[in-house]
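Predict structure. Chain length: 228.
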Amino acid sequence: MIEGKEAIAALIYKELEDIQAVGSADARSVSRLYQAVNYFFSRITVNEKIYFTTLFARMVYAGINYKIPSRELSLLHHFRKMAYQSIYKDEVKKPFSDDQLIQLGIYSLSNVVSFICQANSPFAFMTWEEKLWDVLFVEPNFEKLLSSCRVLITHSDSNESVLTGVSEEYPHHAVYIKYHVAGINDTQTDIIKSYLKLQPLPISLQLIDIEVEAGGGWVPHQLSLIHI
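Prediction complete.
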């Protein structure tokens, strides 16, 4: 149960209204939106007995715990990634203008806040604006190779040597990671299994050179443990 969720929602909505009023005319708007996302997910996970080190991990955990609709959470993940790049990296190729990025953040965060806090959003968006974001909500393209991807592991099946998690590549889909494939990653199997016995889920992994099978299974050539 979230304590003071009405107050949390009111605070977030007020900040979003202020950001929307100035838009990209204020160079700090994207940063303020990013901090609003960080604040909201910190508040709703504050009582969890898990040490989160990234916003990504908090969002994935909250998405599972509160059953946030996949489209809304996916769009907010995309805002998080683009906003972080816009704030902390000099040259970024963005699919949207600053104003569109701000609107995406307001739209997705207000929808998630409304869902979790059960507080009606004061924002209204035109249908064409909502469809603008559909380009981000893509289905997985199987039978391809991913160079690397961060995944938050939420379930483990040690008998089948398969991990279930959520990736940054497709944050609205569960991914199934095979970590005992002969000649590819079986040398790391014992390391992963030992770590799983010591560390409670969720855990975060960096997958490298991932073969994505036609059926949706992921076969990484290398798995690295990272802090969540």
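Summary: Residues 105 and 211 are 32 Å apart (CA to CA).
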